Structure formats: C-alpha cells, structure tokens
Amino acid sequence: MTTDSMTLRESNIAKLREGVVYDALIIGGGINGAVSAAALSGKGARVALIDKRDFAGFTSQQSSNLAWGGIKYLESGDYLLVRKLCLSRNELIRSYPSRVKEIRFFATIDRGFRFSPFFLWLGTWVYWLFGNGFTRIPRFLTKDRIHREEPVVKTDKAAGGFEYSDAYLHDNDSRFVFQFVRSAMDRGCIAANYVESLGARRDGELWITRARDTRTGETFEIRSKILINAAGPFVDDHNQVTGEQTEHQHLFSKGIHLIVPRITPHQRILTFFADDGRLFFVIPMGVRTCIGTTDNRVDTPETEVTDADRDFVLENINKRVALAAPLKREDIIAERCGVRPLVVKRQGGDGSGRDWMQLSRKHEIDVDRAHAHLSIFGGKLTDCVNVGNEVARIVAGLGIDLPHAGYRWYGEPHRSVYEEYMHQARLMNLDSYTSPESIEPLSSRLWRRYDQQAFELLAQIREDPRRAEVLIKGTDYLRCEIQLAKRQEMIVTLEDFLRRRSKIALVVPRRQIQEAEGLMDACEILFGEAAQARYAEYFGESRSVTRAQSRHLESDAA
C-alpha cells in the first residue's frame, strides 16, 4: 500500500510501528485521554494515543450531554467540588460558544418531598453564586406558573418549583470528545482507534507497550517515556496487567437514557426527582427528547439496557408529563447505557460509608513517579479542561520538556476566524442550502462541527454546489461533510459515523436509517470497496447500491 492510498488511521499505525520514543503514550481515547492528548501535544510534547475501541466508544458516548456544576452535590456537602465544576462549566461556555450553551433547568417539586420548593430555590441562588453569577439568575416557580409555562408537566401533585441555569452540548458527547482528539492530531499527536494495549513493561527509562490492531490482529510495540492510563472504567484492569499499584480504584454506577419523540417544543430541560430520589431529566435533542437516568450499582463496566430499566424510565416520565398517549417501549428510538466510574480509595473503598447516589464524579490522578506512570480515575465531561491541565503539570514535573507550556490548548478558534468564516458563508449565500427539515442554519451547523475545517467545506461547495446536497435523506449531513469525514475522522465502522461522529443513530429510527436514500452512497464514500461489508456488519444484512447512487459515486470519482 502506498502512502497516498493509506487512510489516516493506517498512516498513524504505520508511524506507531516505527519505534519512535514518545514523551507520553496515552491508553484510552475517552474524554480523559482525549484532553490529555490535546493538552500535551498543544504544549509541545511528542504524544501517542490509542484506544481498543473507537474514540469515545464506551463511557464517553453515554452521558446526559450536560456540562453542569453538579447542583446535587450541595446536598452531600461537596462545596469545593461544586465550586470547581461551576467554574469549569463557565470556562466551557466561554471557550466553546457554538458547542456548549447555557440552558435552563425547569424543576417541579411534588408535595411531601424532603425539601420545600422555596428551600431548593434558595439553594439555586447558592449554586448561582458558586458559579460567580455567570449564568442567568434563578426563578421561583409557583404551581400555576409551571402549568402556564410548561403545560406538558403534570401539576396535580406539585408544590411548586424553580428554574436555574447550567449548560448542555448542542451536538453529542462523543463528537465533542473526538474534536479534542482531532485538535491533538493537528498539533502532532499520533492517534489510532481500534488499537488495544496488551500490557506494558518498564525497561530502563522507557515503557514498552505491546499493542494490537484489533481490525487486522497485527501486534507491535510502542516506546514512551511516560505511560498514561486513561482507560476510563478499565483503568484498574490495565493497571493489573502492568503491575501498577494505586491509591484509588473504581466503583461503577449504571445509568441509562432513552431517546423518544419530542416531548416539549421548549428549549429547556425539565427536571424532576424520580421515584428512587434521583434527579430525572427531560433533555432536548433536536427533534427528539432524551429522558433518564437510572442509578444502579454494578460490578462490571459491561452493561446493557434491561426491560426493568426501560419500564423504570417510562413509568417515571409518564407519571410526570401529560402526553396525548403514554410513552411505551415501542416509542423508544434509541437507547444509551453506560457506567459512571466513581472514585474511592482502596482502603475501605466500597462506598458503604456514604449514600450510593451521593458519590461524586470527581477525578483523581494517581502518579507513580518512580516508574513515570499516571492513572486517571473518575471525572466527567464538565471537568475535562482541568484534567488536561493537571496531566500537563504532572508530566512536566516528571521531567518532560513542554516548550510551549503556556499554550492555551482548548477552545474554538479566535473570534476573528469565526467572523471571516461567516463573511465567506454570507458571500456565497450558504444558508440557502439549508435543508427544510433542519432546525438551524447551515452556516452555524458547519462551524460548530468543524470550526476551521469548515473553510474547506465552503471551498468545496463553491467549486461544486452539488456537494451541499443532503446525502442521507432524513439527516443533516452533506455530501462534502462525509467526504471530509473519510479523510479526517478515522471512521472504521458504520457505527463510528452513525453513533459517534454524528448523532444520526440517536435521533433517527434504525429502520429509517437502513432504508434511507443515500445511505449506501455514504458507505461507498466512507469505506470504498468495503461498503457492503461495513453495512452488513452494522445492520446484519447486505444491500446493493442503486443505479442512482452509483451515478453519484462516479461523479465523486471524477
């Protein structure tokens, strides 16, 4: 295979096999590994990143899509954590104005709850102050006001409520994580998905990690001065393989969300307390709604949604909102299921000394200075910038030279870059290509997904307006976007694209995706001769390319 015909992933794996000594090898491409790679590479370190699955292919694709300060931790007295998370949320809103947006939480409290609505409303003011008053001020909600402003909420048992602000991701969590990986690669990081660590050993001053390409089965070694274990809920497993002893360990809490047809047209998050006392959310997701979550202690990171989980979520939502017909299992469009890795100390670390649902999502980084090894435990999306900065400080303290230590490695491009992009978009009347079904202008959508890479899309559309056509009917993805994704986003399976680089699989029913006009066209662009195999891998059956789709492909090849 020539260099010109290699995919980005194949090229990066070839570089990993060259025997270069990296300053740091990061195991795991979830949010912790992604920000570690972005921070270190941005500051000038030579970094490699591998993940046995796709980037954000496990825990980091199963979140609530929220960037929030953890208001529930006020009740457990974790005030320093709440303060830290609120400031982290503020920084994300400032740094990613197109991706992380303030949103109102509209909470309803039933009569007989352990706290009155007025007391909880006072708590939201404390929360607002912890965040330096960065967001809009809280509001107290009477029962009548709840009914007027959100008639879908059942108020027959309500005592009142309150409204406050936090933030959410406009796109999905896994896309947000991948953008950190992409920025790391732009700054020299060599990253590859579907490459697993088979274990590592210390050899003199270096770590020697045995790696395996899970798609081909080929093995090779990666040499690094420092090893960073960012394997999410599998941190303990990898430490056991490498013989690392740590102060902390993980416990696991399983949480699920169900994606259903849109419950309310209002762009706010409806908040309740579920029957088990846990916060329960109704989260907007474009033309859909995400509802949940559960909180069940489990012993393993490998989980699945059960009928009991589905019934719990559906029963709780049907008790609290008034729909034309109650939601049933048949209304579920997609499901999310994952574990929250909760950090506890190994000594007495079974979580028994504290209410299970009050255990926080704080992070801890255990450092073995003698062996130059880091283990990142816990964490959540909101705290990601802090994790990246902390890893960079520790790595510098272990003797790795960071020639650009003051570099700000996160955030969208400077406002002037955005303004130039929007100016070019207006000059070519880009928004006239917006699909009638879209909920936002094309110009803002392309910027949010690709920031500086969106200039390349503008150039393609100027050259050939057909590149602006929606390729997969029923989605917001253009032909030129999928062509860019093939070159730049290391898509190996169809699920990588449908579930993580995009959120198509979260908001479009599976059968509708399977029958969508243009899907096989997209598969041909992404996978070439392997299109049929990738389709069959995802759907379990093959599908032929239509004559119309083949004609599109011929024009692309030309």
From TrEMBL:
GO molecular function per UniProt: glycerol-3-phosphate dehydrogenase (quinone) activity
Transmembrane segments: 20-40, 112-130
Domain FAD dependent oxidoreductase: 23-342
One GO BP: glycerol-3-phosphate catabolic process
InterPro entries: DAO_C, DAO_C_sf, FAD-dep_OxRdtase, FAD/NAD-bd_sf, G3P_DH_FAD-dep
Keyword tags: FAD, Flavoprotein, Glycerol metabolism, Membrane, Oxidoreductase, Transmembrane, Transmembrane helix
Positions of the Alpha-glycerophosphate oxidase C-terminal domain: 443-521
Cofactor(s) recorded in Swiss-Prot or TrEMBL: FAD
PANTHER family (alphabetical): ANAEROBIC GLYCEROL-3-PHOSPHATE DEHYDROGENASE SUBUNIT A, GLYCEROL-3-PHOSPHATE DEHYDROGENASE
Family: Belongs to the FAD-dependent glycerol-3-phosphate dehydrogenase family.
Listed name of the protein: Glycerol-3-phosphate dehydrogenase
Organism: Thiocapsa roseopersicina
Lineage start: Bacteria, Pseudomonadati, Pseudomonadota, Gammaproteobacteria, Chromatiales
